[in-house]
Design goal:
CATH architecture of the largest domain: Sandwich
Helix content: 40-55%
Distance between the termini: 20 Å
CATH superfamily of the largest domain: Jelly Rolls
Shape: globular
Largest sheet: 8 strands, antiparallel
Order of helices and strands: EEHEEEEEEEEEEHHEHHHHHHHHH
Strand order of the largest sheet: 1-2-4-5-12-7-10-13
Number of domains: 2
């Protein structure tokens, strides 16, 4: 759903070298795809209707984005491809977000190196600022430190740095001001976008120079939790529609019940079975939202491991704020409207 020109993010503007866009979302599934080139899955964890907003500005080389998520969620996937992504996670929720098993503070800067997987848990009313700089503008040798195959397992990829956090916020605020700029710069002068891009590139270069030389390591507890959860996630993806108990997850991870439970809570903030239920419910909702013709809710529920329909409907409504039948009815109505519009009806 696109915003109207004079709505929340201000007037849309296109500059010769940069453009910006604003979107609102009402589903984690669609929100996960709003930032350009991201390949991310968002699993809604906390109950209630989801609302999201995204702002993204694209310059010649850099990108600056900000997203808002009204409900707590688990995020996994990749960010911008081909470069370094830095982020700053803020929330009105008193609980700290979790990045690679580490509870982040307001001044914690998170990092997604080229090709790396990001794993984090956000809580209600979360706002995240993202900055991206292509690898070609950075020191390749220094950046390589972040690209090791096991880096995301052994390194937290988050750094407490108040000065860097303040610079990230300042860069975003400047971008928001510049998105209303329509008057071109005078001949011979740098356009403000160009000056800002240079500042963001310098910021990223300093980050790589500093933290590429003194990479902190994950604690043994967090590193072990990340490895356990990877094994659990792989097992769940292969058997998500089957009847699974905690014992099955323990066997898959070759770990005790206590170890699996602790690992899941460290990384996701949830117990293993609560996380599994949320994953399944989100998959059901995704299937319903992709429907273009009437479907049997019981069959979709069973496909994802829900055999007791009254309990399934209760859990679904508790998480998403509506019954499965309401979701499919709204989806078919919206899908029909879209089809009619494309057909000129």
């Amino acid at each position: 759903m696109y915003l109207t020109p004079d709505s929340f993010f201000g007037k849309w503007d296109m500059h010769d070298d940069a453009s910006h866009i604003g979107r609102v979302t009402d589903e984690p599934y669609s929100h996960a795809r709003t930032l350009t080139g991201w390949r991310r899955e968002i699993v809604q964890i906390s109950p209630g209707r989801f609302q999201g907003r995204v702002f993204e500005a694209c310059g010649r080389d850099v990108r600056v984005g900000k997203e808002f998520l009204s409900r707590g969620a688990f995020h996994i996937g990749s960010a911008y491809a081909g470069g370094l992504t830095l982020g700053l996670i803020r929330s009105t929720d008193k609980r700290a977000a979790i990045w690679n098993g580490i509870q982040v503070q307001p001044d914690t800067v998170v990092c997604v190196p080229p090709g790396a997987e990001m794993v984090f848990r956000s809580h209600d009313e979360t706002r995240v600022i993202w900055l991206f700089v292509p690898a070609g503008l950075l020191d390749v040798q220094a950046l390589a430190v972040f690209n090791e195959a096991e880096a995301s397992v052994t390194q937290p990829m988050c750094f407490d740095d108040g000065a860097l956090a303040a610079r990230i916020i300042s860069a975003y605020q400047t971008v928001r001001k510049l998105t209303g700029l329509s008057t071109p710069a005078e001949p011979g002068l740098l356009h403000p976008y160009d000056a800002l891009q240079a500042e963001i590139v310098d910021l990223a270069r300093e980050f790589v120079a500093i933290y590429g030389k003194r990479q902190p390591q994950l604690g043994i507890r967090e590193a072990h939790a990340m490895k356990i959860l990877r094994q659990v996630r792989l097992y769940l993806r292969q058997r998500i529609g089957e009847s699974i108990c905690l014992h099955d997850l323990c066997e898959a991870a070759a770990a005790s019940e206590r170890t699996v439970r602790n690992a899941c809570e460290i990384v996701t903030g949830e117990s293993p079975m609560s996380f599994l239920r949320a994953m399944r419910l989100n998959q059901v909702r995704r299937a319903l939202l992709n429907a273009t013709t009437p479907v049997k809710i019981t069959e979709i529920g069973a496909r994802w491991g829900f055999l007791h329909m009254p309990q399934f409907s209760h859990d679904y409504r508790e998480l998403f704020g509506e019954l499965p039948s309401e979701t499919i009815r709204r989806q078919l109505r919206d899908s029909g409207s879209s089809t009619s519009e494309r057909a000129g009806g």
